[in-house]
Write a structure and sequence with these properties.
It contains 4 helices and 17 strands. It has helices at about 115-130, 175-190, 200-205, 295-350, and strands at about 20, 25-35, 35-40, 50, 65-70, 75, 80-85, 85-100, 135-145, 160-170, 195-200, 225-230, 240, 255-260, 265-270, 275, 280-285. The N and C termini lie far apart (about 180 Å). Its main location: membrane. This is Mucin-13.
Length: about 400
């Protein structure tokens, strides 16, 4: 029994693009390959071409999905199962990598191209022939890539591609990794387009830690560090979503940000903090702020403010000194004017003979409040009034 599959749209990492076919006089010819019947769609060579979907009208049953090539399609079950007699049956898996010699690589990136379809049948026919006398069931091509290292070993005009494959046998098969690898190696030595094969452990294929039973119970195997299952029903472990550590929080003055260049999250210090040699986020030095303490706005503001304050203080002091100097000069001028007036008055008294005995040498006369002992007028006789005699 043999089966034949191709990668699903998600398994080969590329988007399936429908091929182009004539929309008139289409002929569908069933072709049986082992346990799987492929529908080959042929069209006349003349007339306009329109895109068609080989999976249109397909009847993939038992939860299987339809995978289209260029002009054919087939049904593909979930991981660990093979499609046979319209049902998905559990099988035994043998993952590995093969190197295939091809005449050209153009179009291999398109899962709906004729070049990819030819490569698909080239690989599946090789394993069909290799395991013709066993309970081999199906081959799944997970990924196809161009090999630059193997290209130098090819003869002129040829190229080499590397395909990650998964050979599925019946669940009750007696085959093991050793016998499968030996059969493939013998087939390569007999001269085929396949030039190399490398077996891969099932634990490594699932992304699990190595176990004694080679991870036969794929849902229970422990994922490798940095990998996890999307959910409990998925046997394959995938790369974990990169996260920041639990200590990356505001309590430790840290935050988790996505690097715009790498797309990966990074734990960095909060704005206003800088990471020290010990990995601790410490507050920025005085005058610095922002991310990584690279913002010197506060320092510049402080320096400018200090200089401005000093200039204002100097200006105030200068105004005070200037005002005091003006007041002092004004007082000196007033004193000089008064002194000049006094001297002029003295000079006038000397030349005119006028004197002011009440001034006592001053230009301003003094007023006496007490009655003088001697009358100023000698002609006035001072006597008391007569008293009444009654």
């Amino acid at each position: 029994n043999l089966g034949s599959t191709a990668p699903s749209p998600t398994s080969n990492g590329s988007t399936i693009t429908p091929g182009t076919q004539n929309n008139s006089s289409e002929t569908v010819a069933p072709v049986t390959s082992g346990n799987i019947t492929l529908s080959i769609i042929s069209t006349p060579n003349s007339g306009p071409t329109v895109p068609i979907n080989p999976c249109q009208g397909a009847s993939c049953q038992d939860g299987s999905s339809c995978v289209s090539l260029n002009n054919t399609h087939f049904c593909l079950c979930s991981l660990g199962y093979y499609y046979k007699s319209s049902t998905c049956r559990k099988g035994k898996l043998f993952p590995g990598t093969i190197t295939v010699r091809v005449s050209g690589t153009s179009g291999l990136e398109d899962g709906n191209s004729m070049a990819y379809q030819e490569l698909h049948f080239q690989i599946t026919d090789f394993f069909k022939s290799t395991f013709a006398n066993s309970d081999y069931e199906q081959t799944v091509i997970n990924k196809v890539s161009i090999s630059s290292s193997a290209r130098s070993e090819m003869r002129a005009g040829d190229s080499a591609i590397v395909a990650e494959v998964l050979n599925i046998f019946a669940e009750t098969t007696k085959e093991n990794e050793t016998t499968v690898s030996a059969s493939i190696t013998n087939a390569i030595q007999n001269g085929t387009s396949v030039t190399g094969y490398s077996a891969r452990s099932l634990c490594d294929y699932y992304g699990c830690e190595p176990e004694q039973d080679d991870c036969s119970n794929n849902l229970l195997c422990k994922c490798k560090q940095g990998m996890e299952r999307p959910n409990a029903q998925v046997p394959v472990c995938v790369a974990s979503a990169v996260r920041c550590p639990d200590t990356c929080n505001s309590d430790h003055n840290k935050q988790c940000l996505v690097n715009k260049n790498t797309g990966k999250p990074e734990c960095v210090c909060l704005p206003g903090y800088k990471e020290s040699d010990g990995g601790i986020c410490q507050e920025c030095a005085f005058g610095y702020s922002g991310v990584h303490c690279e913002d010197q706005f506060q320092l510049i503001l402080t320096v400018v403010g200090s200089i401005g304050g000093a200039l204002i203080l100097c200006l105030i002091i200068a105004l005070i000194v200037l005002s005091s100097s003006k007041n002092k000069n004004k007082n000196i001028e007033e004193e000089n004017l008064i002194e000049n007036d006094f001297q002029n008055l003295r000079l006038q008294q000397t030349t005119t003979g006028f004197s002011n005995p009440g001034a006592n040498g001053s230009i301003f006369p003094k007023v006496r409040a007490s009655v003088p002992g001697q009358p100023q007028n000698p002609y006035v006789h001072q006597r008391s009034l007569p008293r009444p005699d009654y």
